[in-house]
Design goal:
single chain; about 180 residues; alpha+beta; globular
Length: about 180
């Protein structure tokens, strides 16, 4: 979610996120310290698709299409019962992860010009980032503290559109899952 050069975000960039409010009490302090998106206004979440279309491409028709697309998916309950890692990233793994994969696949199929993570990964693994860009001992400390707080159970009933102003992310719209 950053441009990779200044550490700041690109104005007009958008993201589709499943906000996980239930995780915030457990992961919030770690995210504020070790996940730059938290201090930029992004709540605890599982990414559905980033980057999505630039904000200047999102008009009423796209909003209506997103509302219809997400409305075809049912709300679901997810558990975060383990910490896992990518290189220099600590995250909570959702179980099941298939509903998140289905949401990502649906958006990517409708807007192939916006592949998940800009197409840089062959497999998209749903996750809730807790910390990134830290040394192993920091990730170890966060993992030890979080493990005793697990599992976290959450109800996912919507996907939100967030937009960056260059410094902070703001929720622009929310799309309920109806099924």
């Amino acid at each position: 979610m950053s441009d990779g050069t200044s550490g700041r975000y690109r104005a007009g960039e958008t993201a589709l996120l499943a906000v996980v409010k239930e995780a915030e009490p457990s992961v919030g302090r770690w995210r504020r310290r070790f996940d730059s998106s938290a201090s930029a206004g992004v709540p605890a979440h599982v990414t559905v698709l980033v980057p999505f279309l630039d904000i200047d491409r999102i008009d009423a028709a796209v909003i209506d299409e997103l509302r219809e697309l997400f409305g075809e998916h049912s709300p679901f309950t997810v558990r975060f019962d383990s910490c896992r890692r990518f290189p220099d990233v600590l995250y909570l793994a959702p179980t099941p992860d298939q509903p998140f994969r289905a949401l990502t696949e649906a958006v990517a199929a409708r807007w192939p010009e916006a592949p998940p993570y800009g197409g840089q990964f062959t497999e998209v693994i749903p996750h809730l980032t807790v910390a990134h860009g830290q040394q192993a001992h920091v990730l170890d400390e966060a993992e030890a503290a979080l493990t005793v707080l697990l599992p976290i159970t959450a109800d996912v009933a919507s996907v939100s559109l967030f937009v960056s102003d260059g410094d902070r992310w703001h929720q622009r719209a929310e799309f309920p899952l109806h099924g």
